[in-house]
Amino acid sequence: MDSTHEHVKENGDSTNHDNNNNNNNNNHASKKQKLSPPLITDSEIQQEFSHHQPGIARINNGSFGCCPSSIISTQREWQLRYLRQPDDFYFNQLRKGIIESRTVIKDLINAEDVEEVSIVDNATTAAAIVLQHIARSFVEGRYQEGDAAVMLHYAYGSVKKSIQAYVSRAGGYVIEAQLPFPVTSNEDIIAEFRKALEKAKSNGRKIRLAVIDHITSMPSVIIPVKDLVRICREEGVDQVFVDAAHAIGNVDVNMKEIGADFYTSNLHKWFFCPPSIAFLYCRRSNMQSDLHHPVVSHEYGNGLAIESSWIGTRDYSSQLVVPSVIEFVNRFEGGIEGIRKRNHDAVVEMGEMLAKAWGTNLGSPPEMCSSMVMVGLPSCLGISSEVDTMKLRTHLRDNFRIEVPIHYLAPKDGENKARDNVTCVTGYARISYQIYNKVDEYYRLRDAINLLVEDGFTCRMLVSN
Predict the structure, then answer these.
(1) Are strands 239-243 and 278-282 parallel, antiparallel or unpaired?
(2) How far apart are the C-alpha atoms of 408 and 404, rounded to whole Å?
(3) C-alpha to C-alpha distance for 137 and 208, rounded to whole angstroms
(4) 376: enclosing H helix or E strand
(5) Compositional bias of type Basic and acidic residues: which residue ranges (predicted)?
(6) What is the spatial distance between Cα 188 and Cα 349, in angstroms, rounded to a whole number?
(7) Which has the least CB within 10 A, 22, 57, 432, 459?
(8) Which fold has domain 76-328?
(9) DSSP characters for 110-140?
């Protein structure tokens, strides 16, 4: 995208406007064609994120996301509306504003109906809603003790804990699909998922729930979610919940094509909203009266979307800026699709540059990467545990001002010596690319790791805090 070009697009011939007013035989109200805003420039992008702490190579957008200054200003306006006159805000503005945001999200994800879309604070809350619903089905006898739930081995940690807290404690039998990493194709993932379903169905068990990531967090890989949902339908899985915390603004999200019963994604990670906001999609044909927000307020029983729109006095401003965020992303060539492509192409380029510099590999083919890429770190760094990854991550932050998460990959049994570059790698850096990033930030990471290698550094030299 050449963001230095500024265009003003006009549709139609404005010289016909007066004539249209006098010739309206079809009873259509004449309307002046709306001008498209000029495309955002590189300098304007940097200005939108000038509140970021200077001097930090911030290549970890995936963890916390980012919010432009113009959206922060809009959020502040919503906050002031509440503070000026809370009663008017509650009775006349809040519900209307949240419905507008839900409508924008409904169109963005191609849902059937706005009633399928609820707004919550984050994907973790959405997971609790779905998993508590499943737990109640066990407790109230709709599901039998020992019925199965299937999830991916690389499911997000809090979702795993939620499954343990709700489904396992209610009597569910949980199976993890052991996904390969590094991964070379979608077929590898599909094969392991089928194995997990077969194991779950053994001894005559019924599979009540499948939890599928759209993009795994760590290691980060795009999952063939449409294929896995289709397989679940073929195998008679009752309900499918897609945890897509990283998806919106990062990959294509289409509810009619994916076909899951439940789907959640954060809007503060890759869609420029302030923290924290997520949507939970519940397919209309599968909407249950016992889907409830975990926080019970006086809207309990009025439907999940209404329950979620008021859970007591709190700051709802992040849920109200979604229409403004749409205006922001539409200042980019191609809108959100153009941003996704720009970020994907850039992060793959940077990932391949790092892998070449370090003599390692990417964790997946480019087509299985989103705006995040896993890059193998040199084996001589001696990454041998999750503790080592945190120590090295802290070292890079404190001594090189680089923010980047690191994944530990345990060697396979008997794999003491490397057969090739893939098997010797025990640590992967997860790099993100968002519109505010610059290529020199990735060169800083390259040079920092190369310096550690040259100095004979190993993770054993670092002391845990």
Answers:
(1) unpaired
(2) 13
(3) 10
(4) strand 372-376
(5) 1-16
(6) 24
(7) 22
(8) Aspartate Aminotransferase; domain 2 (3.40.640)
(9) T-S-GGGEEEES-HHHHHHHHHHHHHHHHHT
Q: How many residues does the chain have?
A: 465
Record: fold of 335-461: Aspartate Aminotransferase, domain 1 (3.90.1150)
**Tokens standing for residue 35:** 């001008």
Q: DSSP label at 460? A: G
3-state secondary structure of 386: helix
At position 284, the amino acid (one-letter code) is R
**What is the reported pTM?**
0.90
Q: Note down pLDDT in tens along the chain; length 465 residues.
A: 433 333 333 333 333 344 444 444 444 434 455 567 799 999 999 999 999 999 999 999 999 999 999 999 999 999 999 999 999 999 999 999 999 999 999 999 999 999 999 999 999 999 999 999 999 999 999 999 999 999 999 999 999 999 999 999 999 999 999 999 999 999 999 999 999 999 999 989 999 999 999 999 999 999 999 999 999 999 999 999 999 999 999 999 999 999 999 999 999 999 999 999 999 999 987 666 689 999 999 999 999 999 999 999 999 999 999 999 999 999 999 999 999 999 999 999 999 999 999 999 999 999 999 999 999 999 999 999 999 999 999 999 999 999 999 999 998 765 554 444 444 899 999 999 999 999 999 999 999 999 999 999 999 999 865
**CB–CB of 428/219 below 8 Å?**
yes
